[in-house]
Every structure is written in structure tokens, then in C-alpha cells.
Design a protein that fits this description.
Chain A contains four helices and no strands. By secondary structure, chain A is an all-alpha fold. Classes of the chains: A mainly alpha, B mainly alpha.
Chain lengths: 139, 409
């Protein structure tokens, strides 16, 4: 009986541990996808292959995804020290990507050159990708 | 010449009308996450919809009556009501998804958010259902929907590694980083998208609208057996374009703005224009079909006068039902829910409801009271039973897989 309870408690504990870890992994995967979308959309408009409206829509959708990814991390609750560090790193990388998308959106609507935005978005995506790979994500 | 033209028109509209937002989104999501490793599900789904659309068209042509009229009469009011409830619910979700899809497609052209366009899209659907002739709305949206062939053109222009794509199709496997449960969840979703119940209600009621008789069966069979598989190829092209461009960049599709990126990369703004026309036609056509299906199912169950071949004043409750359906669909969208998420849920719940649609069709197609000498042959029954087994497995697995995978997250 006691063994049964102990096993159940262990399962719950492990589920709780894996829950935060998987939240970090899932959020990073989601953010990699969003930053990659923004980078591709900006690259296409910079190459003259796309126009403002679909690019702006893609950037707006990417912002929503990045915001969702950050919210999931913030809502995940307290964590052990090593997990807390992973969460902080992930949040910082997502915020960098949000800044890059916001800047790209501003430059797009103002008709400014997008080369720097494209580079910033790729850098943000690569940083997220590294973190995602380190956390065992699909990216 | 007239007959050849009619056959060609039927096949072309069947191709153009095959893809709706469920097919488009689900294939793009699957292509961006699993490459072409779920292509086999599209093939299974297309064969299934061919089998049952052909069967329901034959039932309508021989008996002169649509599916729901016979379901209630043959299975009784209780079983009919369970069928009606599930079908109406799925249909309503699909209707909301299609109207939301129109709004998202307009956003891609204007850059203005979708909430503004949703009521306008619903109004446009209502006015067309109210005013246009059945053949006009079917042919116009079907032919314009052919613009989605731009996905196939894009795949060729992208110059993919055909050997690798072929390997993914012929040796399907779960990609690294994805769970087997998620793979099977999307297999069920793709199957649900290909076999969406409203397509059968619309096909069967459309047969009555257009006054099909025994003489039209050959043309109808050709439309289904040529048009739907070619429409299925279009679905595969959507998945392939995402697999070529988005998968290597770890971009998992969650919005319509991502679906267009591979086509824009391949063909620039010209390809984008074709794509938007195709998407608008496909979503608008499917919104018309689901709106009509909501009217068909309720009116046929309650025995009301129905059909576009009647003036609206002669089928007032049929038209009122469609207006209520549109208002309910708008109500769902007004909550701020993402139309793409509604689409993803609608295809999975479609899979859950598949037996309620397809079991009665199989029963009625074997009932000599309605079909006389034209009951199902051995081959049709064999295929029907095989698909019944697949449908049951998909329906039973859909909700558990949805829970286990967090809706494919």
C-alpha cells in the first residue's frame, strides 16, 4: 500500500518536473518557428518577391506566437534553480526575437531598408535554435 | 460537345472544390512538421470520399431523395436526431472555420485584421445563397478554386530533392523530435479533413437540386473518380510545398500567413495573387456548401420544404435555418477564437462523427426498397466495409489522441 502511494507520488513529482522542462522545450520550439517565419517573410519582401500586407500579417502572427511562448514560460510557476536559469535564458531569447520582429514591422511600414532587420531576425532565430537544441526540442 | 463540356466542367469544379480550409491548413501543418510521411493518409482519405460520395450520389439519383430524408425514415427519428446533432455541430464548426478563413485571406491582401471581414464574409455568403442559382455558385467557386494549382507549380519551381520527397512518401516514418502519438493524431486529422461529412450531404442534396436521374450516374461517377483524386493531388502539393520550404527551417504552420510563404518564395507576387484568388474561392465555396448543408440537414430531417431549386418564399424555414447557422458561426468567431484552431478542431471532430454519416449511407445503399436493383454490388460493399473499419478506428482514436498529444502540440 505504502509502496503504491510512494510510486504514485514519484510519478506526480516526475510529471511536475517534466512539465516545466517540456514547457521550456515547447516554448522554444514555438519561438524558433515564429522567428523563422518572420525572418523568411522579411527576406522575401527584401528580395522584392512579396509585398507589405502579407509580410505585415506574417510578422503580426509571429508576434502572437512569440507572446504565447513567453506567456507559457511565465505562467509555468516556480522552478528548481537549474530550470529557473533555463527559463530565464529562454525568456531573454524570446524577448530578443520580439524586439527584432517589432523593429522589422516598424521598418516595413515606414518603407525603410530591411537588411538589418533580416540579420537581426536570423540572429534571434539562431539563438533560440541553440537553446532549443540544448533543451532537447525538435528544432 | 455539350456532354463533354458538362463532364469537363464537373471534373474541374470537383478539383477546385475539393480543397477547403480544413484540407489546406491540415496539409500545410502536416507538411511543415512531418514532411510527406503522412501522404498515405491523403490517398486513403481520397479513396474513401470517392467510395462514399459515389454511393450517396447514386442513392440520390435512384431514389430522388437526399441522404438525411432517408436516414430519418430508414433509421427512425432517434437515431436520425443523434446523427443530425453531431452533423450540425461539425458543420457549424466547419462553417465558422471557412468564414474565418475568408477573413484571414482578405487580411493577407489588405493587412487589416480579420475581425472586420468576418461579418462581411458571412453577409456575402448569405446574399449568394439567397440570390445565386445552385449551378452558378458551384461552378464559379469550383473553377476559381483551380487557382490553387499554384501550389503544384510552386513545388516544381522550388526544385526539390524529388528522391527525398519520394522516400518520405514511400517509407513513411515519424520524424525526429515528433512523438508517434502526434503522428497518429495528425493522421486522424488528415483523414477527417479528406472525408468531411458536409461534402457528402452537399453532394447528395446537390444531386437532388440538379435533378439527377439514372442517366446522370456516369457523369457523376466521372466527376468523383477523376475530380476528387486530382483534388487530392492538390492536397499533396500543399503538404509538399510546406515540406520543402518550412520543415528545414523548423517552421511549424500555425497561421495562414505561413501557408503562403513557400508559394511566394517560388513565384513571387504573381503566384501570391493566384494563391489568394484560389484560397478565397475555396473558402467561399466551402462556406456556401456548409451553409447550404446546415439548411439541408435540418430541413430534410424535419421534412420541411428545401432546396435552391425552390424560391426562398417556398422554402422559408430552409433559408431561415441557414441564416441562423451563419449567425451562430459568426458568434463562434466573435469570441476571438483563432479560425485556424477552429479548423484544426473541426477536422478532428469530423473524424469522430464519420461513422454517423457513413454507416447510414452504406445501409441505405443496400436497401432494395429505396434502390431497387441498384443496390451496392460486391465491390462497393467490400470497399464500404473496409472503410467502415478504418472510420471506426479513426473515430475511436480521435479524442484520446487529442488528449494525449495536447491537440497535436
Amino acid at each position: 500500500m505504502i509502496r503504491g502511494f510512494a510510486a504514485a507520488a514519484l510519478v506526480v513529482l516526475l510529471a511536475g518536473c517534466s512539465s516545466l522542462r517540456s514547457t521550456v522545450t515547447n516554448s522554444l520550439d514555438q519561438a524558433v518557428s515564429a522567428a523563422g517565419t518572420a525572418a523568411l517573410a522579411v527576406q522575401l519582401v527584401a528580395d522584392g518577391r512579396s509585398s507589405t500586407a502579407p509580410t505585415d500579417t506574417a510578422l503580426a502572427d509571429a508576434l502572437t506566437e512569440l507572446d504565447d511562448a513567453a506567456t507559457a514560460l511565465v505562467d509555468a510557476g516556480p522552478a528548481a534553480p537549474d530550470e529557473s536559469a533555463a527559463r530565464r535564458e529562454a525568456l531573454a531569447a524570446i524577448r530578443q526575437a520580439i524586439d527584432a520582429v517589432l523593429a522589422a514591422r516598424d521598418d516595413l511600414s515606414a518603407g525603410r531598408d530591411l537588411a538589418r532587420d533580416e540579420a537581426a531576425l536570423r540572429a534571434a532565430r539562431d539563438a533560440l535554435r541553440e537553446l532549443a537544441a540544448a533543451s532537447g526540442g525538435a528544432s | 460537345v455539350k456532354r463533354i463540356f458538362a463532364v469537363a466542367l464537373g471534373v474541374l469544379t470537383a478539383i477546385g472544390g475539393f480543397v477547403d480550409i480544413g484540407d489546406l491548413v491540415t496539409n500545410a501543418v502536416v507538411g511543415s512538421r512531418f514532411g510527406m510521411s503522412l501522404a498515405w493518409v491523403v490517398v486513403v482519405g481520397v479513396v474513401g470520399i470517392c467510395v462514399f460520395a459515389n454511393m450517396s450520389g447514386r442513392v440520390a439519383a435512384i431514389s430522388g431523395r437526399a441522404t438525411f430524408e432517408i436516414i430519418r425514415e430508414r433509421l427512425g427519428p432517434r437515431a436520425g436526431l443523434a446523427n443530425l446533432g453531431a452533423s450540425f455541430f461539425i458543420n457549424l464548426m466547419t462553417m465558422a472555420a471557412e468564414i474565418g478563413g475568408i477573413a484571414l485571406a482578405v487580411q493577407l491582401i489588405t493587412g487589416i485584421g480579420p475581425m472586420l471581414w468576418m461579418p462581411l464574409a458571412a453577409f456575402a455568403v448569405w446574399i449568394v445563397v439567397w440570390r445565386a442559382k445552385f449551378s452558378q455558385l458551384e461552378n464559379a467557386t469550383g473553377l476559381l478554386g483551380l487557382s490553387l494549382i499554384v501550389f503544384a507549380v510552386a513545388v516544381v519551381m522550388l526544385g526539390p530533392d524529388w528522391g527525398e520527397l519520394g522516400r518520405q512518401v514511400l517509407q513513411p516514418s515519424v520524424p525526429a523530435g515528433e512523438q508517434p502519438a502526434t503522428y497518429w493524431y495528425y493522421a486522424v486529422a488528415l483523414f477527417g479533413a479528406a472525408m468531411t461529412p458536409y461534402e457528402v450531404f452537399f453532394f447528395s442534396s446537390g444531386a437532388v437540386e440538379e435533378g439527377w436521374g439514372r442517366a446522370d450516374l456516369g457523369t457523376a461517377r466521372l466527376n468523383v473518380l477523376v475530380g476528387f483524386p486530382l483534388g487530392g493531388l492538390l492536397s499533396l502539393a500543399i503538404a509538399a510545398s510546406a515540406a520543402i520550404v518550412l520543415l528545414p527551417q523548423a517552421i511549424a504552420v500555425t497561421s495562414l500567413s505561413q501557408v503562403v510563404l513557400p508559394v511566394v518564395e517560388a513565384g513571387g507576387t504573381v503566384a501570391f495573387c493566384f494563391l489568394v484568388v484560389g484560397m478565397l474561392a475555396a473558402f467561399f465555396g466551402a462556406a456556401l456548401e456548409t451553409t447550404l448543408s446546415s439548411g439541408y440537414t435540418i430541413a430534410q430531417y424535419f421534412g420541411w420544404s428545401w432546396g435552391k431549386f425552390r424560391r426562398p418564399s417556398a422554402a422559408a424555414r430552409f433559408h431561415l435555418t441557414m441564416i441562423i447557422g451563419l449567425v451562430l458561426a459568426l458568434g463562434i468567431l466573435a469570441t476571438g477564437v483563432d479560425p485556424i484552431q477552429v479548423t484544426e478542431y473541426s477536422v478532428v471532430f469530423s473524424a469522430v462523427a464519420l461513422p454517423l454519416t457513413y454507416v447510414p449511407i452504406l445501409i441505405i445503399a443496400n436497401d432494395s426498397e429505396y434502390m431497387g436493383d441498384d443496390v451496392n454490388g460486391r465491390a462497393a460493399n467490400f470497399l464500404g466495409l473496409v472503410y467502415l473499419a478504418i472510420i471506426l478506428v479513426a473515430a475511436l482514436a480521435a479524442v484520446p489522441l487529442m488528449i494525449v498529444t495536447g491537440a497535436g502540440a
